[in-house]
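Hey team,

Filing this mostly as a record. A colleague (T.K.) asked me to run one chain through the structure pipeline before their review meeting, and I want the input and output archived in the tracker in case anyone asks later how it was produced. No errors, nothing strange. Just documentation.

Input sequence:
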Amino acid sequence: MTRDHLVGVARAAVGTGHRLVGVSRLRGGSKKGVYRLAFDDDSTAIVYIWDDAENYWPTAQADEADNHADPFSPASGIELFEAAHRHLDALGVRTPRIYLADRSRSRYPADVAVVEDVPGENLEALLHRDPRSMGTTLARLAEALGAMQRHQGPRFGKVALMDKGGTSEGSSCEEVVLNRALDDLTEAASRDTRITRSRELLETVVRELAAAVRPRSQYGLVHGELGPDHVLVDRPGQPVLIDIEGLMFFDVEWEHAFLRMRFGEHYRWLDRSDLDEQRLTFYTLAMRLSLVAGPLRLLDGDIPDRDFMMGIAEHNLQEALAFLPTADR
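Output structure:
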């Protein structure tokens, strides 16, 4: 990607008073390209590019992104991004401001969005370097999550689908998670012999945990993949959510299972007293299996940071096997 590729997009986003002088790719983004635009007045912006050439997922997975009726279809696309941004903005949850959202493909041969470049590091880096200074930011993040989770809907699914009056596949969140967990278990077993040997035992545990979950008919708004690397921190210390395309109405325990994994000791700032522990336990195992199958699937392609992806798969494989009785591991 060069300046010439994006000069028209940049001009449409910020006007002719800012001349684009540089483009640099940012780390991360397995489903879309993320680039920083640098201008002649030292200002910057971020451009998202939803292009098959920027998507590291195998083709079959990328094609599933158009099926918004599946809550867990790949969360990629400008439609999902714009719908998620509208919902979060209405709740007062901070996300990067949008300067341009362009589906015309007249300035670039793919859907693009240009957004605010929030200066500074993400929350993951800040927690690693100076966790004691992040108390206010974590408290504000807890407030944002509370606002999202109190914003309930009578149906579950991606907000872009809900906005159109659509209905998600599946009769309940727990059914959708069960089916996904079994698919992930099958895929993981085809790629790692340790899962292969324990597949039947793991399936029994998955089904038992799912059977213990009681029905529910109200769903909160969840990010779906809210690790500290998906939270930027602006100069006043306000958390800024990114990678928001997966925003959906769903069981809030799905969000908290991921938060527990990714925030570790800092999760105490985000915990809630009204969570269903049986649902949390089931969703945690399901998420572990997903975090084995997904990274191994990505490694079929040409994604960089391959050791990092392998590390994610290995860690979550061990965590999934820990759900088995000790004698069966």
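Quick notes for T.K.: DSSP finds eleven helices and ten strands in the chain. The beta strands are 20-25, 33-39, 44-50, 98-102, 111-116, 157-158, 220-222, 231-233, 239-241, 248-250.
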